[in-house]
Amino acid sequence: MSETRGVPGAPSAPSAPLVAAQDGGQVAGHMGWKEAGITVFTFAAPSAVMAVPFAIANAGYVGGIALCLILTWASVAGANMLLEMKIQYPHCETFGDLGFEVGGRQAQVWGNVLQLGNFCLYMPCALTFCAISLYSMVEIGGLGDCMDYYVWLVAAVCLLTTQVRTFTNAKTFTEISFLCVIGMVICMVLAAFQYEHVPRIPAQWIGNPEPKLGLRLVRLASGFTIGAWAFIPAFLTVELSTCMRKPADFKKSLWMAGILNVALFVVVGTLVVARWGYNVGEVIAATTGVGVFARGNLINTFFNIFQMMGNFVCYMLDSVPLGRFCQKCWAPDFKDTWRLPDILKYLGYSLPTFLSALFLSTFVPSIDTLVDFVTALTIPWVTQIYPAVLYWKFLKTRPATDNIESPHCGLEDPIKRSEKITVALVFTVGWISFCACALKAVGYLAFDDLRPSFQIGCSNWLIWKWSGKD
Asked: pTM of the entire structure?
């Protein structure tokens, strides 16, 4: 069994797995590669699908699809690197475990900060997305237009989703989320063909029609940012492959999820932008000049039902490893049964993550800005940079005789030429992605035309508000 290697000073103890255990206490992998592929795809798709047209609009038809292909390939390659190391160290059950085995304590802490930090900071975003969906469908008496009240209303359901505990238990929910993504796609395409967008600015094949160079570059970076957070398999590779009957089959899962991601950009992005033009909203429901996204509209109602259900699952998939991490650190000997005392105990272990998400969703003045900076500071690092650095260290420790491409029987260099090229490409894409995501995050604060409104609180308890229109 692996040891608890979570935070500095954590005691060594048997770790509770993210895969369900049999009665005998042995870890049982029951997930097939198709189920794992759906889980990888739906990890970000319910929130990403809303912004896919915006990515194509700002990078151009050809540019947006090219960025999607490059980022999807680099993400699959980075996840494959993690999988190869996981197979070499099968006892590793978490991202941090693998980092410790290959790179030592520093790599473990670095990996945990990146992965768990993303989960912790994205949970309030998923919580808010669920609340926005509810608000967009119906105005509940007494809540008015205060989004915080809607956040608090859906928060109880989000708390319950945390209690699934393992990815194995989440299989049915991820399948429902997959169906919700399909439902959202159908609603978006139907809306695009049934409603006109006025005024409509034609999109370009590459780039966007903004006249100012700085604004044009920041808009282009938006396409990079959305492509980066739409597909993030490395966040689940170690944990999900642990849940599988044959961990090596996770390669099939990665390619399946990657193909679905590309299809999402090609179908939804190009069709919607071709109909509505360049000036679509950063999330499709924010597009002005179309009548479909209004309360009472049937397409809008179904779209938001699918969106809300899908984002509940997004919240669940973020909270499961985060809650388990807390349990491992605070109660490594937890029995992990479904008796009432253990259910209440696990609720207590996962409660701090829920409360942090609720606090951030209430007191962060702009969720859009939070998403931008979380993306820049975590996603390129977890999906490409960290796997490339860790895999390079892993390759350098591999016996030289494993290299069949070396003309000297592998005695001089244990690393194959193809492996060097792959690591270099993935690492380079990661750094470019980080720079582009950072440009988008900072640029959306620097330019008046792009800066969002900021608000903490509601009309009767307003703490702070700023809007460029004021």
From this structure: 0.89
